[in-house]
Structure formats: structure tokens, C-alpha cells
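Hey all, quick one. A colleague (J.T.) asked me to put the flavin-adenine dinucleotide job into the tracker so the inputs and the C-alpha cells live in one place instead of scattered across chat threads. No bug as far as I know, just bookkeeping. Sequence used:
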Amino acid sequence: MSNHLKNLKLKIWRQDGPNTSGRFEDYIIDEISDEASFLEMLDVLNERLISDNKLPVVFDHDCREGICGTCSLMINGQAHGPERRTATCQLHMRKFKSGDEIVIEPWRASAFPIIKDLMVDRSAFDRIIESGGFITAPTGGAPDANLIPIPKPVADAAMDSAECIGCGACVAACPNGAANLFTAAKINHLNVLPQGQAERYKRVEAMVETMDEYFGSCTNHGECEAACPKEISIDVIALMNKDYRKSKVKNRKELSRG
Amino acid sequence: MTITLDSKIPNGPVADAWNTYKSDVKLVAPGNKRKFKVIVVGTGLAGASAAATLAELGYQVDAFTFHDSPRRAHSIAAQGGINAAKNYQGDGDSVHRLFYDTIKGGDFRAREGNVHRLAEVSVNIIDQMVAQGVPFAREYGGLLDNRSFGGAQVSRTFYARGQTGQQLLLGAYQQLARQIGLGNVRLFNRTELVDVVTVEGRCAGIVTRDLMTGEVVSHAAHAVVMATGGYGNVFFLSTNAMACNVTAAWRAHRKGALFANPCYTQIHPTCIPQSDPTQSKLTLMSESLRNDGRVWVPKNADDNRPAAQIPEEERDYILERLYPSYGNLAPRDISSRAAKRSVDSGRGVGPLKNGVYLDFSDAINRLGRNVVEERYGNLFEMYERIAGENPYDMPMRIYPASHYTMGGLWVDYELQTTIPGLYAAGEANFSDHGANRLGASALMQGLADGYFVLPYTIGNYLAPMLNKPIPGTDHPAFKEAEQAAQQRYQGYLDIKGTRSPDFFHREVGRIIWDYCGMERTQQGLEKALSELPALYEEFQKDLRVTGDGTSLNQTLEKAGRVDDFFQLGMLMCRDALEREESCGGHFRAEYQTDEGEALRDDEKFAHVAAWEWTGEPTKSVRHTEELKFEAVHLATRSYK
Ligand SMILES: Cc1cc2nc3c(=O)[nH]c(=O)nc-3n(C[C@H](O)[C@H](O)[C@H](O)COP(=O)(O)OP(=O)(O)OC[C@H]3O[C@@H](n4cnc5c(N)ncnc54)[C@H](O)[C@@H]3O)c2cc1C
Ligand code: FES
């Protein structure tokens, strides 16, 4: 049966818009069921704020199942909070106890400007994908799906990387605000598959360079892997770097061939 | 107004219809395509695949989503899989069988022509997605793996762990991203459609609201595609993502698009039961779990022992007992009602006695924990995170919840609504699933519509418009629609009542769930139809939205969506009331067999009900499209 937590002290970042300065505000949650999710706790707060004629706290969320990657909170300094392998929306109040102080902030990264309160703009991720995070396969021309067998370990490796939900926790956790884990996960997903070979080096070059335009550089802290709700392994970054180095040689050769 | 609903299925045998259509369809020459602007609203599976393909063909495409990125659409949450008649398992599958299963699963309330085409193109979808790099599950030999889903006796479901929707959406999103990068698609994110504009009976474009600034803007186009998803959130608690709503389809409906079969909603049997009054959504546990999990409740009401202490002979494996040939894989509507009846009879399990068990102990004994973990590991983990219990040690608890809506905008064979130039694709249309959708068929339909149907059918509409001017956004119809939208949103701010949009949403949801949910009666529906208008009046008088309309305001967004849910909810109840039969997800308690199964009335109701908006939510007019069954025989659905 459910238990109730009492007297939670919330410190929440409030910011009216992209160009204004923000501040922390304090709120008390008198009582909440430990079955409630973290975001449901914020729903309860917001209902109260509306009934007090105040502005509710803005935060991004959608699926509340840990898959869409929309939710994005720093909770007590940790991206997505204290539970490993768990996005904010999947975090439940049973991970907290009565009287806890909880500090809630937006992702902090220069590539993710704050829109309002706890909501940030992550469209820089889309720019990276647009620059090469795909396989060119126009509709209609595909051969039979079983024509090219893919060894199970290869398909599994692609899937391990493809699980990335694009939430940005890796960037938020990184002291440099780097997006290497996100970018490398997508590159590795496509670069290990036979279907991805034709554009392999073009892809890595374009994506890495677009990433560098927006994000800080990776100095191997490894915070990203720990924060990733899908536990994408940091090994993908090494694979990306290897392909990137090769791309410089290969792409130049292709160019000289004309 | 007399409206004839012409499905426009080509004459001749249904199996030839799509080929006939494709060979007769008008074409737009490659060099001329860029003279046409097509708007795609929604970038889920249906919208992203349509936008990417139309842009590849050469059309100018503007795509809209209220999400921050196309990658977030609700499609991402689909877990279980996607069907296709590949027959890779050699277990007797075929296009005809998938067609037949879908018609039968839909309880003979879908249009044969559309469903046959869906089954035909299903095979192309898998080829397409593999070419794009979707990492579907594979056998050790490297070939694609399949599993089986409810309502089928073959293994035709392709999957990518428990995240099939994610992988398919990312595939379609990547293809769309490529077109955005090439400048062929302009993407408007965090932008919500708030109205559809018609000029001289044709769709001329849309009006949108920028969610960041509140700015209301018009967009003109030659054709508009609605791929805006389903309305399952009308129930408040559902497995849908929080932002799913009916506004886009509803605004089209109010501008003349008929809305078909709104009462056909699907209640999914395997969701985690509600645990707390503040709960905001329910989480689905994929139907694929029913491949290996066994559904049971104690034989005796008030058996409060933990599951493990209830001996075999005191358990009732409800689905295996009632439907021996399909067992735990009986279709969703049937399984949901079986669970509801067990709980209603006091045999529910869990602290609130609001669930039934889904037990994996036999599977773990038979296959070993490793195999079970390989198949369902991430689902088990998700369950544990939410319910706080470990399904390897004790059975899951599940209960039905709103999940999918078969009803939607009426469309013909070309996926065109009753407004020329306005198309609907994916869950937003009503076309393929009749009164009940089979598992793993929504992803298939969304991608079929977007990749393989719309790109042909839109050309047929556009070809005769070549080099003819279309109304621009300075046309009075756009200006009027902009003004109406501005007034609508300002109106919510001006009420200054005492209750939040969420308060009203919960209340509407409760009424619809109680009276227009898993089991419906005349009396209940009439009650709902008296309670809803009263509550709607209160909404219009007592709503409170704080903040303003010129900056990001999630409460204001929600107000508009709840408003439309109210109007839709009333239509759902009317539709359910007028359909005096039971079929698929629409179960009227008055119409059931002695064994408690749905009792159809083919004489009176073998038709689509398509509703026309007349200006008042309770006064819509019902039109019908007769359903003809030529390739399959109308039969009583049996899964025994
Ligand atoms: C939990 C869950 C699991 C599922 N599992 C499966 C499964 O295993 N197999 C299967 O086949 N099906 C499954 N389904 C069903 C399936 O996921 C959906 O039916 C399907 O993905 C819908 O796709 P869509 O493209 O039509 O709509 P969505 O993916 O819902 O996309 C809608 C799009 O429209 C946009 N939009 C909506 N309204 C507006 C507006 N007013 N203005 C601007 N943009 C707007 C949204 O931003 C979004 O981009 C599942 C559903 C749920 C809830
Ligand atoms: S809300 Fe979708 S991952 Fe958290």
C-alpha cells in the first residue's frame, strides 16, 4: 500500500523567458503519495499555483514512459535525478523521503538555451541529425528486407546505440556541455549496419562538424554515460573518433578522384 | 444537407483495386511538383513518412508539430511491433490472411478496399525501414525475427526489442531530417494547428499558433495532410502521451470534414492499474507479453493471499478457459472485457483490487529466465520502476486502459476527407481498423498511409490544379480564421474562473470512462449526454488560465485542447447511443449473446457512421456509408 511523504521543500528555477534572468523560488509540498511520479508531484504543485492565481512551473514532458526524451530536469544536481537508467518521468517519489529538500533546475548548457522556467531548446540535436544522421533510402526503392542478413550481434550493437532517446542528459551532465555521446550513438547505430556503409565516412564527418558548431568539446569525463537513462556506453565515442579520423583520409581521397 | 459518402474504391475485385488505381491515377510531372505546396500537420509515423516522401518526390512541403522535435511524437512510445504479410516464417501467412484477420479483428466494420491495400503494402514497409537502418530483431542466422500478436494465428510481427515505435519513428524522422537539411521541407516545431481554412469548399490552408510567442499565423497550400494522431486522451487517463489531443481533427471537423465512428475506441487489456488519485497517465505493458504471460485471477472473490500462495486449482486462467484456441492472445476488446468482469465480480488483485495477474512463472520455468529477459527485459524493468514490484518474482498486475481510437476523420480510398484537398493519415483517420484494431497494426497503417498511399493519391488531386492560382493568406477566409483563433484563446484567459483545465479534463474523462468506456448502455449514455453539457457550461464560466497569451503558456494550450475534448466527448456518446449493436470495442450491454459476447446487427448497422458538425456539439447530423463485403463473408467473430 502506498505511503505518504510529508513536507518536501522544493527549490525551483523560475525564469520568465529566454532573455531574462532567473532565480530560485521555494515551495513546500505538504503531502504526496510515494506512488506518485516526480512529474505528478509537479502537477500537484502546478494545480495549487493555478488555484492561488499564480503561474505554474513550465517543464517539458510528454510520454511519461521514459521513451520520448522530452522530460529534462536537473534534480539535486543530477540529470534526471538520483535513479540510474531512469528518465525524470519514470522517477517515483518512493526514491525520496519526508522532509527532503529537492533542487530542480533546467538542463544547463550553452547549446540548450532556456525557453522558460525548466524548459530548454534542444533543436541543436536536430541540426546534427539533419547534417547526416540518416541512410539515404528514398521511398519505394528498397530491396527485400531479408536480402542482406545481418548477424545478430551486429543488429544488437546497432540497437544498443539506437536506443538513445535524445533527451540531452549527456550534454547537461557534461562539464563542457559536449554532445559526443548523443552524436556518437547515432553514428554508431548507422555505421555498424551494412545499409549504413555507403555513407559511413561522409556521415561521421558531417555530424561531428555540425556538433562542434554548437557544443563544447569532449574531455573524457564520462559523466554522460552515468547520466544516460538508456546507459549508452561511452565506447561509442571512441568508435566515432576512429571513424572521424578515417573519414579525413577517405573523404579526401574521394574528392581527389573527383 | 445531403452528403453522399463515396468511398471511391475502384471497381472490380478488391485484390486488384490498388493496382487498378495506380495505373489510372493522374500524375504530376517531376518538374512540376515543385509548383505545389503541401502542408503536413503532424510528424509522427504517418506525418514524417508522408512529409519526407512528398519532399523526395519534389513537392514543397511545410511540416508542423507542436512538439519540440519530430522525434518526440507519440508514435515513439509504441512497444510491441509492426505487422507485415512477409510470411518469412513460412507459417501460412499471406496478404489475404492479413487482410482477413484485420477485417475480422475489426468486427466487420472496416472498408474492404482500404484494408486490402494496407495488407498489400505492409511488405514494402519492412523493406523500406530495413533499408533506412531500423535495427529490427534478428535470428542468429541474420534473418528477421517475428513474434505473434493478438488476433492472429501466424507470426507476422516485426519488432525492435520493446521499442518498435521508437525505432520506426526515428527511421522516418531521419528521412524527414534529411529533407529538412536539403531544404525541401520547412519544419515548424512548437507550432500548433488551431484552424483549417476552406475557400469555395476546398481546403486552402491552416492557421497555427506559435506556442512560444502566442502568435497566430496563416499558411496557404494546395493540399493539407492531417497526421495528428488519435483522441484517446479524451478519457484523461490513457496510455497516450500527455500532449495527444483531438484539436487538429476537431477543427477540421468543424470546418466540414465528417467525423467517423467516434465511439470506436480501444481499451487495451494490459496496462498497469491506477495506484494513486494524482495519477496523470497509465502505462501500457506491451501485448507481446501475452505470448508468454498467463492471465489469471483467484477463483474466489476476496482471496487475499499473495499470488504464490494461491494453488493452481484455485486459479482461474480466464482467457485460456473462455477462448481455448487463442487463449491469452485473444483480441484486445475481448480480453479487456474479460478482465473487467473479473474485477467487477470482486476477484480483482492488488492493493486496490483493480487488476488481474499476468504471470510469467510458467514461461520462466519452461524457457529459463535468460530467454524471458531477452524477450521482455526492458518491459519488466519498466514495470518494476512504476509498480515497485519485480515481475520475475511475482506476477504483474494489469488492467485495461484507453489506448487507441479507431474512429477519426472520415476519408475515402484516397485518404481524402469530405473537404477536397484535406487528407487524413495514421490514427487521425478512421479507415482501416473497423471497430477494433489488432495489435501491431497501427504502426503498419501509419507508415502505409504516409509512405505508400498519400504520395500517389495527392498527385491525383493536384494534377488538374497545375498553374492555377490558389487563395493566398490575405484572403478574407484566412483573416477570419485568424481572428476567431485569437478570440478563442483570449476568451479562455478572460473567463477568470476558479478551476484549471486539468480539473475539467479529469471530470470529462471520468464521465466518458464510466458511460462510454468498456461497456455502454442506453441509460448510461443518456446520463452522460445530460452531464456533459452541464459540465461544459461550467467550463465556459469557471475556467481559470493564469498568465498571458503572448508567451509560452501550457495552461492556455491545455484549455483549447480540453474545450475540443468536451465537444468530441458529446459526439462519442451520441454515436455510441445510436449504434444499437455491439461490435469490437463498442460494447453495448443490451446487445450481447448468452455467453456475453458482442452481438452485431449487420442488418441495421453494417455501415460507417459519419457525423456532420452543425454548430452545436449535441446537434451533429449522422450520415452513413454502407459497408460491402465481397471478398470476405460477414461472420460472427469467434476466438474460441
Ligand atoms: C503505449 C502505446 C503503445 C503502442 N504500441 C503499438 C504497437 O506496438 N504497435 C502498433 O502498431 N501500434 C501501437 N500503438 C499505436 C500507435 O503507436 C499509434 O497509433 C501511432 O503511432 C500513431 O501514429 P500517428 O503518426 O498517426 O500519430 P502520432 O504519432 O500521435 O503523431 C501525431 C503528430 O501530430 C502532431 N500534432 C497533433 N495535433 C497537432 C496540432 N494541433 N498542431 C500541430 N501538430 C499536431 C504531434 O505533434 C505529432 O507530431 C501504441 C500506442 C500506445 C499509446
Ligand atoms: S516524458 Fe518522455 S521520456 Fe520522459
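Adding what we noticed when we looked at it: Chain A has a mean pLDDT of 96. Helices of chain A lie at 38-51, 123-132, 152-162, 169-173, 180-191, 200-214, 223-227, 235-257.
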